[in-house]
Amino acid sequence: MEHVDVAVIGAGPAGSSAATWLARAGARVVLFEKAAQGRDKSCGDGLTPRAVAELERLGVDISGFHRIDGLRVQAGRTEREVLWPGGIFPNMGAVAPRAEFDAMVLQTAIDAGAELRDHAKAEPVLEGGRVVGVRVGAEEIRADLVVIASGAGSAAAKLLGATRVEKSPFGLAIRAYVPSNRADDRYMEACLTVKGPDGKLVPGYGWVFPAGNGIVNVGVGALSTMRNFSQLNLNTMLDSYMAQVGPAWGMGEFVNRPKAWRLPMHVEHRSGPGWVAVGDAAGLVNPFNGEGIDYALESGRHAAELFMASPGTAHAAYDALLRREYDPFFATARRFAWVIGRPRLLRFLLGIALSTGFTMELVLDIMANLIDSEHRSLAGTLLNGGGRALSILDPILMRTQESEVSEIRAKIDAAR
Ligand SMILES: Cc1cc2nc3c(=O)[nH]c(=O)nc-3n(C[C@H](O)[C@H](O)[C@H](O)COP(=O)(O)OP(=O)(O)OC[C@H]3O[C@@H](n4cnc5c(N)ncnc54)[C@H](O)[C@@H]3O)c2cc1C
Fold first, then answer.
1. What is the dihedral angle through the alpha carbons of 355, 361, 362, 365, rounded to the nearest 10 degrees?
2. Is the pLDDT of residue 413 over 60?
3. Which residue, by CA, sits nearest to atom 30 of ligand 1?
4. What does R_g of the chain's alpha carbons equal in angstroms?
5. 33 lines ligand 1 (CB under 6 A)
6. Is 414 among the domain residues?
7. 122: alpha, beta or left? (left if phi > 0; alpha if psi -120 to 50)
8. Is the minimum distance from the CB of 46 to ligand 1 under 6 angstroms?
C-alpha cells in the first residue's frame, strides 16, 4: 500500500498552503482535490493585508491582481474611507478572483514538490480511533498525518467530528461578478445597512470589491444571529443591494449566475490522532466580516510547521495553538455576532463607530482581520474588554442563539 508523510484533502488556500510548507520542508505530501484544476469558489475575492502578509511568506506573487488601498464603510447616509494602516501587516490588500487565485496558490504547492491528484474525492480512513490515511475510490493511501482542508461543511470533516457547533453563529453569503465603470476603485466597499425592496433595513451586510478588470465582485451576507434569518432569501437580498449601490458603481448585468455558500465560524473538533483541520474546515472565518482566506493560509502553515517539528504530537500542538492564538478573538467575535444581530443595538454602535476617523480606524482593525494575538493594539484591547463584558451575558446569549438556530436548522438542512 502506498505510504506518504502527509495527505491533504482539499486544494483551496488552506490545503495548498499546508502542502507548500510541508513539501518545502522535505515531506512527501499528496494533495487530493475532488474538483478539476481552476475550480471556482463562491467568495468576495478580498485579500486583506493579513492575507497579503501570508502570501508574501509563501512567495506567491499577487502583483497581477487589483491592488486595494483601504476600506470604505457605509451605514445609512454615513460613509467613511480608511487606508490600511500598515504596521504589523502590509499596507495593501487585493481583489483576486478565486478561480485564478486558488490556481496560483496550488501551483506554488506543486512547484514546492507536492503531488496533486485532482478529480480525486478523498475520505479519511479511521482505524482504532486514529486516522491512518485516505481512501479515494477503491484505493487507500497511508499517511502519518491527514490534513482536512476540505472547506465548509464537507463530508470529510464531518466524518471526524469537525462539525458546526450548533449553538454558535454561522453565516450565509452570495456573490456575483458584474461589469462596472468603477472597477479600478482602490477601496473595498462594505455596507452595513442593506435595504429591502420596500426601503426598510434587512439584516445583513453588502460588499462591492473592485477586481480592476472592468468587473466588480458584489455580494451580500448574513449571520444566523440576525433577526428573520430563517426567512432570508439571499438572491432577493442581492437584487435589493444591487438596486441600492448599482447606480453609484455603474453596474451592468450579472456576468454569471450568483453563487452562495456557507461561512462556518465554530466547529466542534479541529484535530485528533492522525489528523488536523485547517481553514474553513476548522471554522476559521471571522464573524465580523466573513473573511477566511488569511486564516486558511495561516492555519495551513501552522499545521505544516507543527508536523515537521514533531509528527507524533502535531495534532495536540495544533489544537493548543488554535486555543491560544485564535480562540480568544473568535469567542469575542461570536459574542459580538449576537450584538450585530440586533438592528437597534447595531445602529447605535455603528453611530459611535463611524462618528470619527479615530473610531473608524478601530473598526477597520476589526473588520479587516488586523487584530493579532501577538501584538497588542488598541482595537484588540477594546475588543477583548468588550468581549469579557459580554461574556457575563453568555447564558442569555447562548440560550437565544440556541432557539434561533434550531428554528433555522430545518431550512439549512433542506437547502443542502
Ligand atoms: C460568498 C462568500 C464570500 C466570501 N468572501 C471572502 C472574502 O472576500 N475574503 C476572504 O478572506 N474570505 C471570504 N470568504 C471566505 C473564504 O471563501 C473561505 O474562508 C476560504 O475559501 C477558505 O479556504 P479553504 O481552503 O479552507 O476552503 P475552500 O476554499 O472551500 O477549499 C476547499 C477545497 O476542498 C475541496 N474538497 C472538499 N471535499 C473534498 C474531498 N472529499 N476530497 C477532495 N477535495 C475536497 C473543495 O473542492 C475545495 O477545492 C467568503 C465566503 C463566501 C461563502
1. 140
2. no
3. 151
4. 21
5. yes
6. no
7. beta
8. yes
Q: Give me ligand 1 centre to Cα 107, in Å.
A: 17
Atom of ligand 1 nearest to the CA of 121: 42
271: domain CATH number is 3.50.50.60
Q: What is the pLDDT of residues 255-299, one digit of tens each?
A: 999 999 989 889 999 999 999 999 999 999 988 888 999 999 999
Nearest CA to ligand 1 atom 16: 292
CA-to-CA separations, 251 to 45, 243, 407, in angstroms, rounded:
18, 9, 36
Parent domain of 146: 2-69+94-165+263-327
Ligand 1 touching residue 149 (CB < 6 A): yes
Q: Enumerate the β-bridge partners of residue 206.
A: 191, 220
pLDDT at 412: 47
H/E stretch holding 80 reads strand 78-83
Determine which residue's CA is closest to atom 51 belonging to ligand 1: 43
What is the number of structural domains in the chain?
1
Ligand 1 proximity of 189 Cβ (cutoff 6 Å): no
CA of 334 to the centre of ligand 1 (A): 20
**pLDDT exceeds 80 at position 415:** no
Q: Is residue 36 part of a domain?
A: yes
- Pocket flag, ligand 1, residue 11 (CB < 6 Å): yes
* Domain annotation covers residue 174: no
347 belongs to a structural domain: no
Per-residue pLDDT tens for 301-346? 999 999 999 999 999 999 999 999 999 888 888 877 777 777 667 7
Can you give the pLDDT at residue 171?
A: 87
Atom of ligand 1 nearest to the CA of 207: 8
CA atoms of 390 and 388, how far apart (whole Å): 5
